[in-house]
Amino acid sequence: MSPKSKTSPARVAHVFPGQGTQRVGMGKDVHETSPAARKVYKQADDALGFPLSRMCFEGPEEELNLTYNAQPAILTTSLACWKAGEEKGLWKDTGAPMFAAGHSLGEYTTLVVANVVDFQTAVRLVWERGRAMHIAGSQCPGGMLAILGAEESVVQEICQESGAEIANINCPGQIVLSGTTRSIRKAIKLGREKGVRKMVPLKVSGAFHSPLMGPAIRELNQAITSTPFRDPEIPIVANSSAKPLHKAAELKHELLIQLCHCVEWQRSIEFMISSGISTFIEVGPGKVLSGLIRRIDSGVATLELTA
């Protein structure tokens, strides 16, 4: 993204990625070139008490992919990119965002950008979230399945017949299911029978964004409720409702219920576009969200600040 990408302040939204965007080597370049980014990685290492930065830059991959490592690693890399952009004056050039939104884990990144909590608080919360989700996945085994090229009504039928749940509505033709191992197997069989073009089992440690994450809510509740939150300086569009949140208490509620609730990403983007957003700036590892946004509405602009 270029500092010359001048857009109207009232028409920009910042979006932040979630789990699955991690890769070994992410953030290494921005760490080497930006003092602000280096500070973010050091703060993460200090807050967690282990060298998360080394895991981002060097791996090993199997360690980085563990839920309780991947989540703080993505948060840290996203904030490092955002701070590097701030350091270069990019956000002055593009204008203050009208909204911020994050895909699942990415909602925690919005907390820092909107000055709800400081970064070290956020990274500790995210580590707790990843640990709680990992434990829930062990207690209530399950998985996730991406269904591509099918209408939402067809996916709903598959869920009703298999017992799986819709976990993510990402864009037209891309919906993710969560459920028990048995329900996911049945969903695959039903999808084939209904002529679904493509189904991809996801490499995750549990049935995220489904009722099987109930134990994670219980684990995370104390950490969330005991952490002081400020009202966001930028409205945060919630995964669970696709509506803007303006109060600290609303955000605390959102962070707990989104663990078991469908991520309404497509509807979140559609809401922001209907509210006047014409440019989305994706900040963090990868360009997954930009691709989804273009499939939701090819008429909006997407810019990326990636690592």
Walkthrough of the structure:
Helices cover 49% and strands 16% of the residues. It has two domains: 9-138 and 210-306, Malonyl-Coenzyme A Acyl Carrier Protein, domain 2, CATH 3.40.366; 142-201, Alpha-Beta Plaits (2-Layer Sandwich). It has helices at residues 28-33, 35-48, 52-58, 61-64, 67-87, 90-94, 106-113, 119-139, 152-162, 181-193, 214-225, 248-257, 265-274, 288-296; strands at residues 12-16, 99-102, 143-148, 165-171, 174-179, 198-201, 236-237, 244-245, 279-284, 301-306. The chain has 14 helices and ten strands. The radius of gyration is 18 Å and the shape is globular. The strands form three sheets. Strands 2-1-9-10 form a four-stranded parallel sheet, with helices on both faces. It is an alpha/beta fold.
Could you provide a short overview of the structure?
This protein has 307 residues and is an alpha/beta fold. The chain has helices spanning 28-33, 35-48, 52-58, 61-64, 67-87, 90-94, 106-113, 119-139, 152-162, 181-193, 214-225, 248-257, 265-274, 288-296, and strands at 12-16, 99-102, 143-148, 165-171, 174-179, 198-201, 236-237, 244-245, 279-284, 301-306. The strands form three sheets. It has a four-stranded parallel beta sheet, sandwiched between helices. The protein has a four-stranded antiparallel beta sheet with strand order 4-5-3-6.
